[in-house]
């Protein structure tokens, strides 16, 4: 991993970790889950499912070279049979998961709108930064 790539990913990890720690986002979600307002628990669950789907799809895209044995062309993903179906679902899971998490934190955790969005953004930045640090499998180009 090059130092430039590491620095780019750490630009997400450090602010994301700081926001997550400062706002105590995991504890706020645990409180929302425990307090269980009528709509809160299903929204937390849906947000968690969308987040898990995001992580799973990202890892799948990262592992395509090892699974298929061919390196995908990420630049022209629309022409790729594999990526053209996975990337739109990944995009939808990111948008829906972040939106639901922002709403839950803003509405049910007591953080308010601005801090709720900041908490969701921090958690997503941390997750994407960490996932970006994972090394991609190398496959020889044919």
Task: Give a short overview.
This protein is mainly α and about 140 residues long. Helix content is about 75%, strand content about 0%.
Helicity, in percent? Answer: over 70%
Largest sheet: none
Instruction: Report the mean per-residue pLDDT as an integer.
Output: 89
Integer-rounded radius of gyration = 17 Å
Structural class by secondary-structure content: mainly alpha
Tally of DSSP β-strands: 0
Describe this structure in words.
With 142 residues, the protein is an all-alpha fold. The protein has 5 helices and no strands. The chain has helices at residues 3-23, 25-35, 40-68, 81-108, 112-132.
Q: Topology of this structure?
A:
Layout: H1 3-23, H2 25-35, H3 40-68, H4 81-108, H5 112-132
Helix pairs in contact: 1-5, 3-4, 4-5
Which properties best describe this structure?
142 residues; mainly alpha; 5 helices
